[in-house]
Write a structure and sequence with these properties.
Largest sheet: none
Helix content: over 70%
Order of helices and strands: HHHHHHHHHHHHHHHHHHH
Low-confidence stretches: 446-451
Number of strands: 0
Mean pLDDT: 84
Structural class: mainly alpha
Length: 451
């Protein structure tokens, strides 16, 4: 059945459309884990593994904080894409402004509350005092970039819904290029440690935000429609936004809690295990961000399909992007199998950490392929703003992950952690696949049978 999406001539424009959208997103998304790899490599060649563990732990804390507000990107894309599909450009403008208002408010609150947040984050994590001390330095530097980080989520979601993927690529290149350059300057050039990596991230976020605002203003000049203050503060629109964001927040917090628990348990085993998993998690991030390029493409196309009430477009977008995503997932498995040890050697020069990372590398040969369904179905449900199944499926997946981890970490140690990670990704795909038929039925315009 799926073969028809490759063989039928009327689907060829869809393949071109998907690749025009997905390729810049893949390149921009892969720049993010490349930055993580540079962060890891910069501190991984210092004279102690606790610097590497500190950056990994601090970055995980920020992932939990910032991606807890990932609705600012995800919700914006779905809502704006549906408005584009319905040709409602006043709401295209309004959605961005509402999201930016929320983002800046949250960012300022995070700065104000930075001390209790840091205390809680580093109290509940299991790691040595040396790792925690360096991690706190990283946190104290990076937290000042919170308003810019969250505002950038809104801009990325808005440009994605408008299919301005080239703009997204430019913003990500500026963000990550600036960050990498400052990493090298602060750590290698000036002798800073984890705090230098944090300051580099903070400055890079504001640099990207300045460029993003300029590009938004230029885009709005050529966009039809206007937005009035009464429409902007529409309570019905804010209620819908609240419901969508609530579900996405719960979904994202569950996912990030799973990753934070994974790293915390790694530190409880040993500093060497924490450092090795910090290296291996970069492999997972690299594949995940690449696959997310197809998921984000699905998100935009699914949102527009809902705005146009077209079940045909929903099915076609999901099928074609999923087939290409699966090919990429299998490709990552092959690359990691052939070059994994060499990549580990580039990320850290510590022999004990290298040996430990190579020992658990086989799990990274499996995970990219089995995670494709989770990414693609995430894109479908986010784009159509069908967020309740996302929330419920993630809760079930987290429970399965924790049950597996707690059951296996005792007898299997780090093997148990990686098996639990595989279970988490599989369950995300399974739970959403079970909910997909109901989503299809909610779109009334059933497409005609084609020859």
């Amino acid at each position: 059945m799926l073969a028809r999406y490759f063989t039928a001539s009327h689907y060829r424009p869809w393949h071109r459309r998907v690749w025009v959208m997905a390729l810049p997103l893949i390149l921009s998304n892969m720049a993010t884990p490349l930055l993580g790899m540079v962060d890891t490599a910069v501190v991984g060649h210092l004279d102690s593994p606790h610097y590497l563990g500190a950056v990994a732990l601090g970055a995980m804390v920020f992932s939990l904080i910032f991606w807890g507000f990932g609705f600012l990107r995800m919700g914006t894309t779905g809502l704006v894409a549906q408005s584009v599909g319905a040709d409602d450009y006043a709401e295209v403008r309004a959605h961005l402004i509402r999201a930016l208002m929320i983002a800046v408010t949250i960012g300022v609150l995070l700065i104000v509350l930075q001390k209790p947040i840091a205390w809680l984050a580093f109290t509940i994590t299991e790691a040595s005092e040396a790792v925690k001390t360096e991690g706190k330095g990283y946190f104290a530097a990076r937290i000042w970039g919170a308003p810019a980080s969250l505002a950038n989520y809104c801009l990325l979601g808005w440009f994605l819904a408008l299919n301005r993927t080239g703009t997204i690529l430019a913003l990500q290149l500026v963000l990550n290029g600036t960050n990498i350059a400052l990493d090298l300057l602060f750590v290698v050039g000036w002798g800073m440690t984890a705090d230098g990596v944090g300051y580099a991230s903070m400055i890079a976020e504001y640099t990207a935000l300045a460029l993003g605002i300029f590009l938004v203003i230029r885009t709005l000049r050529h966009m039809p429609g206007t937005v009035h203050r009464a429409d902007l503060m529409n309570p019905v629109a804010f209620k819908r936004l609240f419901v969508i964001n609530r579900d996405i927040i719960i979904r994202t917090l569950c996912l990030q809690c799973g990753f934070l628990w994974f790293m915390a348990q790694s530190g409880q085993i040993s500093d060497i295990t924490l450092a090795a998993n910090a290296v291996l998690i970069q492999f997972l991030y690299f594949a995940s961000y690449a696959l997310d390029g197809f998921a984000a493409t699905t998100e935009t196309l699914a949102g527009r399909a809902k705005g146009q009430n077209s079940r045909e477009d929903l099915d076609t977008a999901f099928a074609i992007t999923s087939l290409w995503a699966l090919a990429f997932g299998l490709g990552f498995s092959v690359i990691y199998g052939l070059a994994g040890p060499s990549i580990i050697g580039l990320l850290t020069g510590l022999p004990d950490v290298q040996q430990e990372a190579v020992r658990y590398l086989p799990y990274l040969l499996i995970i990219p392929a089995i995670s494709v369904a989770a990414f693609q179905l995430d894109g479908v449900f986010l784009g159509t703003t069908a967020t309740r199944p996302l929330r419920n499926g993630m809760i079930i997946s987290l429970i399965s992950f924790l049950a597996t981890g707690y059951g296996m970490i005792g007898p299997l140690a780090n093997h148990g952690l990686w098996i639990a990670m595989a279970v988490l990704l599989c369950m995300r795909g399974i739970t959403l696949a079970l909910a997909y038929p109901a989503l299809r039925r909610s779109i009334d315009n059933v497409y005609p049978t084609r020859d």
